[in-house]
């Protein structure tokens, strides 16, 4: 079992596995970010940190090169590139 902890994790409430890249993605509504790490809890990456784009994310999935998530405040599905966090769309 791998446990991820630290100052950047306060209220994780979205979790997704990227089987092809062997990464775990999570959204945290408290600190307004989406991060990822490999299956062993190493190589942590900040994908998105934004108080505008991540008001209250609560569900997350990965498909091909994109992340998709829902947000209680945005009332819709949002998406961005899973590697860079760029190319944001609603």
From TrEMBL:
GO terms for biological process: canonical Wnt signaling pathway. One of its GO terms (cellular component) is plasma membrane. InterPro entries: 6-blade_b-propeller_TolB-like, Cueball_EGF_LRP_Nidogen, LDLR_classB_rpt. One of its GO terms (molecular function) is Wnt-protein binding. It comes from the Eukaryota. LDL-receptor class B repeats lie at residues 22-66. PANTHER family: EGF-LIKE DOMAIN-CONTAINING PROTEIN (PTHR46513:SF13), VITELLOGENIN RECEPTOR-LIKE PROTEIN-RELATED-RELATED (PTHR46513). This is LpR2 (inferred by orthology to a D. melanogaster protein).
């Amino acid at each position: 079992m791998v446990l991820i902890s630290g100052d950047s994790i306060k209220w994780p409430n979205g979790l997704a596995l990227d089987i092809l890249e062997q990464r775990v993605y999570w959204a945290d509504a408290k600190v307004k970010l989406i991060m990822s790490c490999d299956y062993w809890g190493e190589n942590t990456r900040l994908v998105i940190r934004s108080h505008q784009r991540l008001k209250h994310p609560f569900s997350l999935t990965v498909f091909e090169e994109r992340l998709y998530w829902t947000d209680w405040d945005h009332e819709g599905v949002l998406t961005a590139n899973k590697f860079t966090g760029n190319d944001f769309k609603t």
